[in-house]
Amino acid sequence: MSAASDEATGAWLVVGLGNPGPEYAGHRHNVGYLVVEELADRLRERFRKHGTGRAEVVEGRLGVPGSPGPRLVLAKPRSFMNEVGGPVKALATFYKVPPARVVAVHDELDLPFATLRVKLGGGDNGHNGLRSMRSSLGTGDFHRVRAGIGRPPGRQEVSDFVLSNWSSTERRELPFAVGDAADAVECLLTEGLERTQQRHNS
């Protein structure tokens, strides 16, 4: 699929935020990866390395056979969280996707585990991935699917909490939370922000 065809069909770029490598795979900070992997499974596609480097992508279209929906590019940047903006900017440029059609799926400390908020624009709220994206895209006016992970217990440092594995209780509920977030992404792309907020904002 060429960049020109993406421009004509108005592709969306859905970016799962996380840190690359097996040692980070089970961390709370990587929930964005899990959501785009779920979406790729629904499309029955596998991630592949993109020619721009530092990202893996899946290209597809939502909808059912005979009634295709929006074209989308799912992305897993292969840079660390605080440098994710560079790969996102490179993909947005390649596919000619404006910031308003970029969706960042990320962990959110200020929401309880397994709750969701979907929004357009805003600050980074201390999230290094969002800060990097804002800097590289030159704007914060992209969509966010905020997957709640809750606050650290007791006096645990935030940095240690987000880079720790899910609890056993959370692991049992995690597939449902990831599925809900993937549903929210699909709703956003097919039915718009207002309807998605009505249905999915916890």
From TrEMBL:
SUPFAM superfamilies: Peptidyl-tRNA hydrolase-like. It catalyses: an N-acyl-L-alpha-aminoacyl-tRNA + H2O = an N-acyl-L-amino acid + a tRNA + H(+). It is found in: Cytoplasm. The record marks 107 as: Stabilizes the basic form of H active site to accept a proton. It is an enzyme of class 3 (hydrolase). Its main location: cytoplasm. The record marks 19 as: Discriminates between blocked and unblocked aminoacyl-tRNA. One of its GO terms (cellular component) is cytoplasm. Pfam families: Pept_tRNA_hydro. Monomer. Catalyzes the release of premature peptidyl moieties from peptidyl-tRNA molecules trapped in stalled 50S ribosomal subunits, and thus maintains levels of free tRNAs and 50S ribosomes. Belongs to the PTH family. This is Peptidyl-tRNA hydrolase. It comes from Nocardioides perillae. The gene is pth.
